[in-house]
Design goal:
The complex is a heterodimer.
Chain A (H helix, E strand, L loop, with lengths): L3 E4 L2 E4 L5 E7 L5 E7 L5 E7 L6 E2 L7 E2 L9 E3 L8 E8 L8 E2 L3 E5 L1
Parallel strand pairs in A: 2-11
Antiparallel strand pairs in A: 1-3, 3-8, 4-5, 4-9, 5-6, 7-8, 9-10, 9-11
Chain B lengths: L8 E5 L4 E6 L8 E7 L6 E6 L4 E2 L4 E4 L5 E6 L8 E8 L13 E6 L1
Parallel strand pairs in B: 1-9
Antiparallel strand pairs in B: 2-7, 3-4, 3-8, 5-6, 6-7, 8-9
Classes of the chains: A mainly beta, B mainly beta.
């Protein structure tokens, strides 16, 4: 079954470490997105991509970076994690027929100590 | 994209219909109304969308007023598993439009 996968599901890491959150989809979607959500708060778009080698910054400024070298893969990297980066990160994708909405992954819950 | 207004919370008894309202008075003619829900901080799940006609699928019905300034999501027979935050989002018809989530409505379905 086509789906979107995020790993790890949970991550606890020390300040200053470099981390990469993985997101892969098997639906051949050209558009992919990263949202950040603090507990009990709204989702905020931090990065998106319209296809290979395309990346854009979202509405919320983020110290993270993304890359899109393959259609199915859209990893998010933090070069030096800080406690302020503690949050849930949700990846999503959408296809050419955007009217069918976004498909979201289960998220990565990041805690920086 | 137009802004939406939703009540912060609603209650519903199990088995009854849940009617979730959304105001989008500044919606423009080419903007769609989308509904998503998020169960306990999982990834949001697409429910339904519409432009001006009422829509129904296996999950819910969407009723859009004739002037398109408001809409109602209807869950015909709510179950405990429908407890979630429901988001009403207005989005342009370009394939390059992104989804902007607001605070949504927390629906609590009780036995």
């Amino acid at each position: 079954e086509a789906d979107i996968y995020q790993t790890p599901r949970y991550l606890v890491i020390g300040t200053g470490k470099k981390i990469t959150l993985e997101c892969s989809q098997t639906m051949g979607h050209d558009k992919m997105y990263w949202y950040q959500q603090d507990p009990g708060m709204e989702l905020h778009l931090i990065h998106y991509s319209y296809g290979v080698n395309s990346t854009e910054k979202g509405d919320l400024s983020s110290e993270s970076t993304v890359s899109r070298i393959r259609t199915e893969h859209f990893p998010l990297t933090l070069e030096s994690a800080r406690p302020s980066h503690t949050s849930q990160y949700l990846c999503a994708s959408s296809g050419a027929n955007y009217n069918y909405g976004y498909t979201f992954g289960s998220g990565t819950r990041l805690t920086v100590v | 994209d137009a802004k939406t207004t939703q009540p912060p919370s609603m209650d519903c008894a199990e088995g009854r219909a849940a009617n979730l309202p959304c105001n989008h008075s500044t919606i423009s003619g080419n903007e769609y109304v989308y509904w998503y829900r998020q169960i306990h901080s999982q990834g949001p799940q697409y429910i339904i969308h519409g432009l001006k006609n009422n829509e129904t699928n296996e999950m819910a019905s969407l009723i859009i007023t004739e002037d398109r300034k408001s809409s109602t999501l209807i869950l015909p027979h709510a179950t405990l598993r429908d407890t979630a935050v429901y988001y009403c989002i207005v989005r342009g018809n370009s394939g390059y439009s992104t989804l902007t989530f607001g605070k949504g409505t927390m629906l609590l379905v009780s036995p």
